[in-house]
């Protein structure tokens, strides 16, 4: 994944909406949607909830909490 995709993953996992992510990263909401769609196709997740679960599991397995 690209650096930007990882940024978007972290912001989604923090509970931000597409509009909030767009404002934080100075992108359009449509661009954020495209990033999210690409992330969902690359990772074994179907939606934001599964993405958050995956991120939390990774953090726990790496003792980053």
UniProtKB/TrEMBL annotation:
Pfam families: GerE. Keywords: DNA-binding, Transcription, Transcription regulation. CDD domains: LuxR_C_like (cd06170). One of its GO terms (biological process) is regulation of DNA-templated transcription. Signal peptide: none annotated. GO terms for molecular function: DNA binding. Residues 1-59 form the HTH luxR-type domain. The keyword DNA-binding applies. It comes from the Bacteria. SMART domains: HTH_LUXR. This is HTH luxR-type domain-containing protein. It comes from Rhodococcus wratislaviensis NBRC 100605. The lineage of its organism: Bacteria, Bacillati, Actinomycetota, Actinomycetes, Mycobacteriales.
């Amino acid at each position: 994944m690209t650096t930007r995709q990882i940024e978007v993953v972290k912001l989604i996992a923090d509970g931000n909406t597409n509009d909030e992510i767009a404002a934080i990263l100075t992108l359009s909401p449509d661009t954020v949607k495209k990033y999210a769609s690409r992330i969902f196709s690359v990772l074994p997740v179907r939606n934001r909830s599964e993405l958050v679960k995956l991120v939390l599991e990774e953090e726990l397995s790496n003792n980053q909490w």
